Automatic annotation (TrEMBL):
Residues 6-119 form the Glycosyltransferase 2-like domain. This is Glycosyltransferase family 2 protein. SUPFAM superfamilies: Nucleotide-diphospho-sugar transferases. GO terms for molecular function: glycosyltransferase activity. Its EC number is 2.4.-.-.
Length: 287
């Protein structure tokens, strides 16, 4: 059995998928299986999947009859039986040293559950920037790790690091909701540390910030849930047995809910936000 599984949930990625798959197959560490799940693509994505499955036995492919959306990430995880696991999106790609350097960190330190390198974002205009969500979280205390993360989940690129598979299986939410990936990352920190590799080894397409409001409207039904987009995420975390409920953690959750509420209101109800900006700023400083 391979030691690592790379899960690749894809949807209409025909323009970038070959680059993503090639970056996996060209890894210097070759003891892996690549699990691709096509979430009902309507372009040429599935044909590309079939080609790579024919030419390399390490590539396993699945095609979903119904669109799974966020749960497609869980599907590829559920198909794996390896000790370590990572995700790669169909429009992202690796340096050839990604697996080799990530697994070295995990093998060296049993207290680390996620090894994630620095990441470079690319954009259609050619602009480059480093991801802000790969910083190390290595405190010994669970509540300190979770609190640090909740105050700065950022772009959550840490989700694309290499994890201990058992930790991911114990941490993945059983159903999809807005910011499920933040919930996942926060829960994994209850099991151990996240270590950063100080080298760019993964490259991601940058998601347009303007798509955030659309994602909230799509993920959350009802005005109250839309106004507080990470409320369901927060409730799910607080119900988990290993999740700490100390004052600092709860305070960080409240702060995050306020920040995402402000972001949503500023986009959807800008006039109201302008009238209430002083009040919002006051609350944010108090937290």
């Amino acid at each position: 059995m391979p030691q690592i599984a790379i899960g690749m949930p894809v949807f209409n990625n025909q323009e970038t998928l070959a680059r993503s798959i090639d970056s996996v197959l060209q890894q210097t560490y070759g003891d892996f299986v690549l699990i691709i799940s096509d979430d009902g693509s309507t372009d040429g994505t599935w044909a590309i999947c079939e080609y790579y499955a024919r030419v390399d036995s390490r590539v396993l492919i699945f095609r979903q009859e119904a669109n799974l959306r966020y749960m497609n990430f869980k599907f590829v995880l559920d198909q794996s039986q390896t000790e370590f696991f990572c995700w790669l999106a169909g429009d992202d790609y690796y340096s050839c040293f990604f697996l080799e350097k990530c697994i070295s960190v995990l093998n060296h330190d049993a207290s680390v559950v996620c090894s994630v390198p620095k990441c470079q974002f690319t954009a259609p205009a050619g602009n480059l920037s480093l991801a802000e969500g790969t910083f190390p979280i290595v405190q010994d205390e669970i509540d300190m790790r979770v609190t640090q993360y909740l105050y700065c989940p950022s772009d959550n690129t840490r989700m694309y690091g290499l994890f201990r598979s058992e930790v991911l299986r114990d941490s993945f939410p059983p159903r999809g909701f807005h910011a499920y990936d933040w919930a996942l990352s926060a829960q994994t920190l209850c099991f151990g540390k996240h270590q950063e590799i100080d080298e760019v080894l993964i490259y991601r397409e940058k998601t347009k910030r303007a798509l955030y409001t659309g994602a909230v409207l799509r993920d959350e039904r009802g005005l109250l849930k839309q106004l507080f987009p990470v409320f369901r995420m927060s409730v799910w975390l607080l119900r988990q047995k290993k999740f700490p409920r100390r004052r600092g953690v709860v305070r960080a959750l409240i702060w995050l809910n306020l920040v995402k509420h402000m972001e949503y209101v500023s986009n959807v109800h800008p006039d109201f936000y302008e009238r209430s900006r002083f009040f919002y700023t006051y609350l944010k400083k108090r937290l």
